[in-house]
């Protein structure tokens, strides 16, 4: 079951719904016989499936339960791709925000990020844990999260070309009067070097071998998030959970919606203009709310 959004969008009002639809974009699966499919599943190429469906969804995770229960007798297992398209039952309610606020990054990772900001971005964030207002309203740099590798085929409409991304970043630098840029990306080293030639003042964090062995890729990603959350201005990648987490952290730190909720524009918009595409939807932090009553509206929700 390959989950996807509805091609026509949310519509005027948000409602829970689920329908079999034609696949919106390319997938990593192919039909090899009348009754079998194969695909690349989490690094394995020997997976076989008896059926494959693209299903457009909009709702909470519970929307899948009736169908799975109905088909349980005939199915031994079900693989659901892009489960992140669905919301959990308490998403964006007071319980969600209380739990999210309690999760702060480990002090050793914050210390590495702080040292990088002092050395390469001219900013000393102090010793805060990310739940208080930043010094001087944040560092005088733009933070860019530029997701590329898997998104080039998974979400091609969300990924600008290198030249397009550079053009958007340079326009932001000129508009904001900011010279330094921090790049968080999974791009290849060659792509990063090309961007550095196109964007003056561009830097990224490269971990030492010791840090990489000790903290792994996940820890290094957290350091990127920590740095990006302190920028005067942040622009991310559409549909990326990584960008979404940075926006949450920036909200906790008191950064404005105007300095936080922006995406790089993909090839279906004007790749040279960062204002040519829709902004990501703003999620307001909820401090008091009756638990369990959350239902998002079309103006409040964005898939992670």
Describe this structure in words.
This protein is α/β, with parallel strands linked by helices and 304 residues long. 30% of the residues lie in helices and 15% in strands. It contains eight helices and ten strands. The strands form three sheets. The chain has a four-stranded parallel beta sheet with strand order 9-8-7-10, with helices on both faces. A three-stranded mixed beta sheet has the order 1-6-2, with no helix packed on it. It has a three-stranded antiparallel beta sheet with strand order 3-4-5, with no helix packed on it. α3 (107-120) crosses α7 (209-228) and α5 crosses α6 (189-198). The longest helix has 20 residues, at 209-228. The model is unreliable at 290-304 (pLDDT under 50).
């Amino acid at each position: 079951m390959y989950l996807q959004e509805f091609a026509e969008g949310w519509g005027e009002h948000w409602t829970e719904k689920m329908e079999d639809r034609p696949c919106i974009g390319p997938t990593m699966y192919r039909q090899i016989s009348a009754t079998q499919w194969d695909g690349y599943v989490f690094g394995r190429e020997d997976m076989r499936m008896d059926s494959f469906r693209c299903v457009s969804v909009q709702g909470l995770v519970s929307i899948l339960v009736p169908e799975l229960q109905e088909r349980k007798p005939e199915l031994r297992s079900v693989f659901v791709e892009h489960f992140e398209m669905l919301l959990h039952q308490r998403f964006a309610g007071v319980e969600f925000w209380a739990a999210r606020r309690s999760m702060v990054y480990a002090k050793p990772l914050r210390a590495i990020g702080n040292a990088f900001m002092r050395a390469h971005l001219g900013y000393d964030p102090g010793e805060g844990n990310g739940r208080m207002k930043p010094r001087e309203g944040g560092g005088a740099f733009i933070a860019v999260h530029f997701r590329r590798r898997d998104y080039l085929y998974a979400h091609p409409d969300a990924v600008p070309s290198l030249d397009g991304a550079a053009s958007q970043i340079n326009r932001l630098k000129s508009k904001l009067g900011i010279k330094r840029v921090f790049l968080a990306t999974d791009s290849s080293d060659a792509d990063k070097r090309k961007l550095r030639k196109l964007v003056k003042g561009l830097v990224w964090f490269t971990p030492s071998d010791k840090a990489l062995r000790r903290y792994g890729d996940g820890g290094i990603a957290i350091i990127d998030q920590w740095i990006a959350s302190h920028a005067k201005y942040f622009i991310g990648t559409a549909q990326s959970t990584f960008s979404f987490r940075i926006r949450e952290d920036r909200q906790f730190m008191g950064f404005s919606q105007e300095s936080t909720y922006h995406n790089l524009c993909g090839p279906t918009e004007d790749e040279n203009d960062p204002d040519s595409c829709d902004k990501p939807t703003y999620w307001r932090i909820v401090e008091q709310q009756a638990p369990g009553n959350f239902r998002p509206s079309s103006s409040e929700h964005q898939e992670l």
